[in-house]
Amino acid sequence: MKYYIIAGEASGDLHGSNLMKALLKEDKNADIRFWGGDLMQSVGGTLVSHYKERAFMGFIEVLMNLRKIFKFISFCKQDISKFNPDVIIFIDNSGFNLRIAKWAKKEGFKTNYYISPQVWASRAGRVKSIKRDIDKMFVILPFEKDFYKKYNYNVHFVGHPLIDAISDIPKTNEQQFREENNLGTKKIISLLPGSRKQEISTMLPIMLSLVENFKDYQFVIAGAPSQNEEFYSQFTNGKDVKLITNKTYDLLNVSYIALVTSGTATLETALFKVPQIVCYKANWLSFQIAKRIITLKFISLVNLIMDKEIVTELIQNDLNKENLNKEIIKTLEPNNRKQMLLKYNELEAKLGGKGASEKTAKLILKELL
Fold first, then answer.
1. Are 321 and 311 in contact (CB under 8 A)?
2. CATH architecture label of 2-160+352-368
3. % of the chain beyond a pLDDT of 70
């Protein structure tokens, strides 16, 4: 079978790579062409476009790059037509993927979606077009099945692929990791400021403003593979902080607490059982627009899945040096750490166990045979 997969960012690349492995296991003759990243490319198949080329964050940034985005959309349609796949698999990345899906459905291609667009967060009216354009939807969050049920759209809950991704990773040898990265013996406060230049530039200076307040701890930045060391150096100059690139999971394995930019990383941090503080700050205008269309009580996946505040969220103006200092002190308190870790266990149980990629691959292939 011929599979065309479209993923648009680092997390999509991770989940896309695991889905590709599962598809190749189920279909030995699978021919896969994809939009993704390094992880998907390492599995095999043919990379058409790297997600780094399309990493636009926020409403204003998207508007500024509309011409470039429309060129990508046009090229993607041409490439799909030329490849003529048996199925197109969309992974998250709704702004791009839903436009392609509308065209693909009209052209007669079979359309599957893995990792639902966050229509439960904003613009629920998009469910109408999803029902029209997507043949099968595979969701990874437990509340999504009930959400779609309200719209008479039957979707498959397959569990969260992060459970597989994390459980497959060997336990980090802490002593060796510390020695290799010259980390010393202090407990580690890891900083996860995101992967895009814009969000790193916003989050990291605030996170680093606390370094002098907690000299008994080692601050370590989880560097994104998409950014080079020189980019981070403008923020770290003169500060007692380490940068470790492309080893986020190893770093989380040895971290005591973490400051995390809202996104998939909040869930990853929870699954590694690291107490965390969630940070989010956006372009002012982008935030004002988002505030008016997003209907959620929380921004972190941890709190959304649990439907209550498990981790503190410091959003926009609340994300400042004073508040972050207070929350770090709270998070370091033993009893608060213990309670958060207990809630993380409940969270993991809600996510449905292992095998999300395999379940999805089998369901996709079942529809094709």
1. no
2. 3-Layer(aba) Sandwich (3.40)
3. 92
pLDDT tens digits, 301-340: 999 999 899 999 998 889 999 999 999 999 999 999 999 9
Whether domain 174-350 has CATH 3.40.50.2000 = yes
Give the residue range(s) of CATH 3.40.50.2000 domains in the chain. Answer: 2-160+352-368, 174-350
Instruction: Output the six-digit token pair for 183.
Output: 């980390």
Compute the average pLDDT of residues 181-207: 93
Is residue 291 within a helix (H) or strand (E), and if so which, with residue range?
Answer: helix 284-293
- Tell me how many degrees the CA angle 175-180-183 measures, rounded to the nearest 5: 70
Q: Measured on CA atoms in the order 66, 51, 103, 147, is the torsion positive or negative? A: negative
Residue 61: pLDDT band (50, 70, 90) is low
* 191 touches 259 (CB < 8 A): yes
Residue 274 CB contacts under 8 Å (≥ 6 apart), including other chains: 190, 252, 255, 256, 257, 258
Q: Does residue 302 contact residue 311 with C-beta atoms inside 8 Å?
A: yes
Question: Sorting pLDDT into bands at 50, 70 and 90, what band is 291?
Answer: low
Q: What angle do CA 190, 51, 74 make, to 5 degrees?
A: 155
If we measure between CA atoms, which residue out of 18, 70, 109 comes closest to residue 359?
A: 18
